[in-house]
Amino acid sequence: MSMQKQASLASRVRRAVIGDSINLADQSIFHKLSLIAFFAWVGLGADGLSSSCYGPAEAYLALGKHTFLAVFVALGTALTIGVISAAYSQIIELFPTGGGGYIVASRLLSPSVGMVSGCALLIDYVLTITLSVASGADAVFSFLPAAWLPYRLEAAVVGVVLLIVLNLRGVKESVMALVPIFMLFVVTHAVALGYGIFSHAGAMPAVAARVARDVAVADRELGLMGMFLLVLHAYSMGAGTYTGIEAVSNGLPILREPRERTGKRTMLYMALSLALTVVGIIVCYLLFEVRPEEGKTLNAVLFGAVTAGWGPTLGGGFVLVTLVSEALLLFVAAQAGFVDGPRVLSNMAIDRWLPARFALLSDRLVTQNGILLMGAGALVLMLVSHGSVDLLIVLYSINVFITFVLSQLGMVRHWWRARGQRAPWKKGLCLNGLGLLLTAFILVMVTWVKFFEGGWVTLLITGLLAAAAWGIRRHYNRVGAKIRKLDVLRAVVDPENPYTPPIPDNPAPVAAPDPRAPTAVIFVNGFNGLGIHTLLSVVRLFGKDIANFVFVQIGVVDAAVFRGAEELARLKAGMERDLQTYVGLMRDRGYHAEAHWAVGTDIVQEILDLAPPLRERYPKAIFFGGQIVFEKETFLTRLLHNYVVFTLQRQLYRLGLPFMIMPVMLDRPDGGPVMAA
């Protein structure tokens, strides 16, 4: 099979699995790809809602025999959900274009603190994917024959791979595919909890009396302080309930305009559904006096008790459907990790804490590298832990509270600085201050309980990731400082500069292009030192043999640009301005000059579309591109820097087009660049 046929086959397979490229020229693209509040609730709220499968049970069991103290745990949980949700609504107001834990801490505290918050979130999202899929696999295999149990890990791995493929197709497509599962969970739980509570409405006075008696007994046995500490311990053990609340503020860029209103509505849906589900489950535990049973989750015991009078067919069928919906929702909950994890990666990459490639988009307009990294991390963790839910739960929920605390601290600092300047500063300070106290308490308690059980592993991995991010940022800063030294060339070629321009003037100004004359097609990325270095190198190599100069720039639509039509328009306007500067520079010296540009997610493909027509117009065209060269090429430089020019050279060679690379060497002993001679 020829290489062309192999490429064609690979392209067809990719289109079948991932889908066709999305056209950036479509004016309604942002509207089509964005999520309304309902679909955002599905895609971002499943993580929080799925925690009702285990969070209330952990809190309830932590009370031991003093189960009726769960009333206070339920009230505290509902209050905490409300406070954290309202606090994140304040963040949505302040950062309407997207304000997750990384952005908030970076802007309101410091970039370094934001980096720590971002690293904590990334580890949390990998754990979210792994734990959700592993829990879902456990739940599904609990209904299957015991002989199938050895294949549970393989099924979990397949589940992660399927989610990777779904998200590579696009966020909206992945969410739409998961809507039936989400709604099945909501409907079955609403029916079960609603029936359980209203069927026992007449027993509420008796329940209140039992709560009073249990409080009295607990007071005698534990004392007031001991009882208070027991409730706090159970409250903190249910901390997994609050994970996922931050997902909306992280995911604002994918929401429908106006994003602030859509985000707040999504947050309201999430908070109400989570609070009602958690409180309803705990109340039903009390009403039906649920006790643990071997081989069953506490929710399975509860739903069996609720439907005990429905008959074996109806009741058994309903319990099965309800538990299956819980199992499948756990798979859906992993979606939050795939939606928000790559977004945090891209934001950190834009700020140079992580390799810049994580900010790039695929032709499906998703952060493909981020999705693959999150999926790969989840697969590795799944294999290392053998899909053990008990182990993963120990590692889980610490990191998200690190982000909660830093976000609330940043908001408190913001409101304190804004005191007296804005009317709602007191309300904001109180709300975010309460959120800070609650999340800080839970963080301390969860870390204390889980640290020696294995929670230290999570903190160690987060610390190592933060150290790596710090090293990456230092490298980018050093390289950036050297590249900025090239910008002195901008002043040298400025016509108004008193220095003699190094570009020679033609004695006879060219009024029109000469298609038969040698032509330099120069790829640039803005009017900067690197582009001017490439231009000067071409002039010094070829002198006046070049009659025509064609400047080409590709605007890369990455995560920073793909936030709305305004950013895309700003990118195009900036390219036109920079290219016209090059064109004007050469025309003033008597050369013919023109500019061409395009926007896209793949630089090589866009240039391959532009190059043949240019060569047809100018048969003697030679293509040029600048490339940063390090004296010592290492794995780090290959990972952190774009070597797309070499890929472009190979592709143009295959088309029979000549391409020359103009090197810019940064790591000279004297610290300065080498100008091509």
Structure, explained:
- The chain crosses the membrane at residues 68-88, 108-129, 149-168, 175-198, 222-245, 266-288, 308-333, 365-385, 391-409, 429-449, 455-472.
- The protein is mainly α and 677 residues long.
- It has two domains: 28-476, Up-down Bundle (Amino acid/polyamine transporter I); 486-665, HUPs (Rossmann fold).
- The chain is 66% helix and 6% strand.
- The protein is built from 25 helices and five strands.
- The chain has helices at residues 3-17, 29-33, 37-50, 55-61, 70-94, 101-108, 111-141, 152-169, 171-198, 204-237, 247-250, 259-287, 298-306, 312-333, 335-350, 368-385, 389-395, 398-417, 425-485, 488-492, 529-542, 565-587, 603-617, 635-640, 644-654; strands spanning 519-523, 548-556, 592-600, 621-629, 659-665.
- A five-stranded parallel sheet has the order 3-2-1-4-5, sandwiched between helices.
- Helix 7 packs across helix 8 (152-169) and helix 7 runs antiparallel to helix 18 (398-417).
- It is elongated, with a radius of gyration of 30 Å.
- The chain starts with a helix and ends in a 12-residue tail after the last strand.
- Residues 495-501 and 668-677 have low confidence and may be disordered.
In sequence order, what are the helices and strands, one letter per element? Answer: HHHHHHHHHHHHHHHHHHHHEHEHEHEHHE
The CATH superfamily label of the largest domain reads: Amino acid/polyamine transporter I
* Cα Rg: 30 Å
Question: Which range does the strand content fall in?
Answer: 5-15%
Helix content: 55-70%
Q: Report mean pLDDT, rounded to a whole number.
A: 84
Total number of helices: 25
**Measured distance between first and last alpha carbons:** 45 Å
Q: What shape does the CA trace take?
A: elongated
Main location: membrane
Protein name: Amino acid permease-associated region
GO molecular function: transmembrane transporter activity
Pfam family, one: AA_permease_2
